[in-house]
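From the pipeline queue, job 12 of 40. The input is one protein chain; the requested action is below.

Action: predict structure.
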Amino acid sequence: MKKSFIKSIGRTLGALAIASLAFSSQAADKVVPLRVLLVTGGCCHDYVAQKDILKQGLEARAHVVVDHAHTPDKTTNPPLPIYGNPDYAKGYDVVIHDECAAAMADVKTVEGVLHPHKNGIPGVNLHCAMHSYRVGNHREPTKPGTEASMWFDYLGLQSSGHGPKEPMSITFSDKNHPVTKTLKDWKTGPEELYNNVQIMPGTKALAEATQIQKPRKKKGEKEAGEPTEAKAVVAWANEYHGTRVFSTTVGHYNETVSDDRYLDLVTRGLLWSCKKLNKDYLKK
């Protein structure tokens, strides 16, 4: 009697375990991959390689499908395929801006780039996207709500330039935020530390970096001055018209973009912006 009862319980538990695995498998099959539009092109970066590094890295880490909106143009005002079409993000769940369009200052064009984000499409912004779409004097703090500030209002931070290409020590200043809570501080190889002209109201700083900057020797000087330590926020979260926006200024060189730690950061920022940072959408 006891043996048959134990066997019956065992069969029941086994059946439940199999059913649970089947349910989990079905649930995973029902996860609809996020559609991601990655915008790349313009001055000063190896976008031809980086667009593929990002696509492969993101798709390996999360249930996403990345499409490219790329131009091989290497000027500071590249003819990006999104220009002139304010509905360029239709059908996508999120847009990654990784372009370098420093000389694009046409107000209507910038408004068109911002249109999807004003209407509920989350944004992720990488590196030189912070130095793009600069209307007016970008070196002085802009007034929120003005034309000169419209791109910075979206980003959540205003930057005007960067230091030398030297290693940076990245520290996650908010270790409890969903994006950063599983990530560890790290030191990059040569990178560009973007300055902070101002952090816009409501922006949440997530990580900062320090960099030892060696001064350039001026004409007539026998020796350069002493190295100095520079510090700036390099990753942050913002809300733009009720839509989540994640940004990081890290990511100049291919070696950094292909670093697992960088790709983990961008993946988590992307999923957070879409409110999908969970075990269903994370592959690892």
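Job complete. Confidence is low (pLDDT under 50) at residues 12-27.
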